[in-house]
From TrEMBL:
InterPro entries: ADC_synthase (IPR005801), Chorismate_C (IPR015890). Residues 102-345 form the Chorismate-utilising enzyme C-terminal domain. SUPFAM superfamilies: ADC synthase. It holds the Pfam family Chorismate_bind. This is Chorismate-binding protein. It comes from the Bacteria.
Length: 355
């Protein structure tokens, strides 16, 4: 989140202090409210000690040496009113430049060859729509968040000229005491295709790949209980969702749990070995995918941790905005169908933010 921002900072060995009192971070936790922090932020390599509320904001490839961000002030509220004087008032008008199909076609062709060769079972490439602000303020997107349904974990930050505002439906995991709750969110269709989606074998298999991965990852830590697969409706699109719970026999800590689960095949690659992760990283770099897209974003508050998968967001630097979207590709996937899914996801984000 903040480690790649060229803002004034001070280095004290194991921690860096970055940003100013105008900077902020937040995550809405269902049933709790908006967890909000104001800068400057102390950036730490390891989870802070007991009683310290902090944000976790690494990058997708887990290369941020200090993913923990401890704000100068922290509070929980029903809304984001306290941030109003620190952000713009007018929603931005953005001139968008859509990604090109030819580039996507080339990526899909390479992925299809790899799938046929058995290199991996599933991978999630992404494309990026870029834009320039014509008028208004990008951080004013924050004003839209309290209006969104509880199904979304709304989140964001701003440090200097960089920022991100999003509304993700995907929880990475929540940890309270010895209980860990997570979810598989995979399989996507436009809402008007909900009826055939429910029994679509390709969509079901794509979803069950993620479920299987999570069960295998968590089984060594305790008995995993999986709830029934259900359809999650999010306005213009629907997803399959399966909730999973596990009572941990022992907790390895938040840092270890993040590394154990991220990235799931919902945003990553399966098998999740070093070679495939490197390949995915190279693919994302070629396509200009922001480092924070799909990255873990979370908050430790009151002794509990809540983490989400950083999707469905708009990020920016100055007046340059980026809107990334990814889609899971398996052997049954078709190039044009996945291209349409990418467009549906990007348009759903624009509708959420009224832009």
């Amino acid at each position: 989140m903040m480690s790649d921002t060229p803002q004034p900072s001070t280095d004290s060995g194991n921690e860096v202090v970055r940003g100013s009192a105008d900077d902020f971070a937040f995550l809405r936790v269902p049933g709790l409210g908006f967890c909000v922090g104001r800068g400057p932020f102390r950036e730490l390599a390891d989870e802070p000690g007991d009683g310290v509320d902090a944000f976790y904001a690494g990058d997708f490839q887990m290369t941020d040496p200090r993913p923990w961000k401890v704000p100068a002030s922290f509070w929980v509220a029903d809304d984001l009113t306290a941030l109003a004087k620190h952000i713009g008032e007018t929603l931005p008008e953005i001139s968008w430049d859509s990604p090109g199909f030819r580039q996507w076609e080339g990526v899909f062709s390479k992925v299809s060859r790899d799938l046929s060769a058995g290199r991996y079972e599933k991978i999630v490439p992404a494309v990026v729509e870029s834009g320039r602000v014509v008028s208004g303020d990008l951080d004013a997107l924050v004003h839209r968040l309290p209006e969104l349904p509880e199904e979304y974990w709304t989140y964001g930050y701003r440090v200097g000229s960089r920022g991100l505002v999003g509304a993700t439906p995907e929880r990475l995991f929540s940890l309270t005491g010895d209980e860990l709750i997570t979810m598989a969110l995979a399989g996507t269709a436009p809402v008007e295709r909900r009826a055939p989606f429910v029994n679509d074998p390709k969509q079901i298999r794509e979803h069950e790949i993620v479920v299987r991965y999570l069960i295998d990852a968590l089984d060594p830590l305790g008995e995993v209980v999986r709830e029934k697969r259900e359809v999650m409706s999010l306005g213009s699109i629907v997803h399959f969702r399966s909730a999973l719970k596990v009572k941990l026999s022992e907790s390895p800590g938040v840092d270890a749990l993040v590394r154990r689960l991220h990235p799931t095949p919902a945003l990553g690659v399966l098998p999740r070995n070093a070679e495939n992760l490197e390949l995915l990283g190279e693919m994302r770099d070629r396509l200009g995918v922001p480092k924070r897209f799909g990255a873990p974003f979370g908050v430790r508050v009151g002794g509990s941790f809540h983490g989400v998968v950083g999707i469905r967001h708009i990020c920016w630097r100055g007046t340059h905005a980026l809107l990334p979207a990814g889609c899971g590709v398996i052997a049954e996937s078709e190039c044009e169908n996945e291209w349409k899914e990418l467009a549906i996801k990007r348009e759903s984000v624009k509708r959420l933010f009224g832009i």
